[in-house]
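CORE FACILITY INTAKE
Project code: CF-77B
Contact: R.S. (postdoc)
Sample description: multi-component assembly, four entities in total
Requested service: structural model of the whole complex
Turnaround: standard
Below are the sequence entries exactly as provided by the requester. Do not edit them.
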Amino acid sequence: MLFIIVDCKTSSARICAMPHLKKATPENASVNKRILDTALDLFVERGFHNVSIHDIQKQANVSIGSIYNHFGGKEGVAKALYYHLIREMEELVKDVVDEGLGYRESCNRIIYMLFEYTETKRNIIAYVLHAKHQEFLPDEPPICSSTPFKTMRNIVQQGIESGEIREGDPWVIASSVFGGAIRLIHLRLDGVLKEPLPKLYDELIDCMWQGVTPAAIQESVA
Amino acid sequence: MLFIIVDCKTSSARICAMPHLKKATPENASVNKRILDTALDLFVERGFHNVSIHDIQKQANVSIGSIYNHFGGKEGVAKALYYHLIREMEELVKDVVDEGLGYRESCNRIIYMLFEYTETKRNIIAYVLHAKHQEFLPDEPPICSSTPFKTMRNIVQQGIESGEIREGDPWVIASSVFGGAIRLIHLRLDGVLKEPLPKLYDELIDCMWQGVTPAAIQESVA
DNA sequence: GTCTATATATGGATAGAC
DNA sequence: GTCTATCCATATATAGAC
């Protein structure tokens, strides 16, 4: 379920901040939210092209007319979702950055947050990281060129410049930092990996930093 | 273009073994091959659901009837492609294993091969690693549970047992080994990363092994 | 085995009442 | 702004000639 849609600010970046008591009641939620909510569920479950306007209409308990009024069609719904969720992620990443923890720790927090989300808000992560948007939103830029991902690469870049992270090609280093985590998320979303991701966090982080820590720091620790 | 379809054995695992002179001539190729060939191109370019039987029919210069005769429909084409390409990858991985290079070097070779393929046989990699098969082949197992991927994880597992690779949760280690490479492939396929992957190989491999080399070996090298 | 013509279903989109 | 009924394009699948 989405709490974020109406106002991104309300969903702070607190890790684990799941308002369990808020009992999502799709019936009395705003039409707008109900549409986006069920669209997310359906798109993730079946894929964009296997979901019809009629399906959304039925499951969201709204009329086709409303969907067209609000979003101009199925693609419009997908696009709205796309930008809402990117913005949601952007907020989360930004909040981590604003904590001013240092670049390495920022990367850790982002990875942990992604792992948590994969377990508790699976569909959001699935839609952002797993969907092939190019196939139904051909005019939108690919997700990995969106702000949150840019910000993540930026953190790595600054980490390199500050000496916290090993030098090298920015793409290689960024992929070395986040690639393992993203791979685990994909495996988890595909149902191949049975273990909850947070359990694997410590070990992954350990491997990862051993790979991209500058030699200087590596020695000083040893 | 596909050389593999008709007989997987013919396309050996030689890296860079591109028979440039063979001049792919879709006109006189077998109907079967022509269908699969153009289907791959179209599916990768537009996505499965944005390609109609008629599109394949036109571009492959065959009739709709032929497509149904050979594959039973669009889904049949996609499924045949899926298994052909998985088998192709499996052959490549198997050939690497058969060289008996040791587990670390085997991982390197596989990554290099994937990088090469991404540049020279882009659509094959895109279809195998980038497509969301669950959305059009809901009854097939996810690609990451297919043999080539299992074999890759198996190599890592044996590497761990032999002491060549650092101990830890198999999923974490495997993701640490291949995650960065797969991430780079995705970035490249999305067009975000402009550099050819083989150029980044050395650096990636370096980062990667620094992360997952056992402490014992690490010290002995230093 | 290959082709064309056609049937049938589905789903996106609109019109117009409330 | 919300709804229902309807239109129309598209795409899968089949039938039947060659």
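Facility notes:
- Confidence is low (pLDDT under 50) at residues 1-24 of chain B.
- Residues 52-54, 64-65, 68, 73-74 of chain B lie near DNA strand D (CB under 10 Å from a C1').
Invoice: internal transfer
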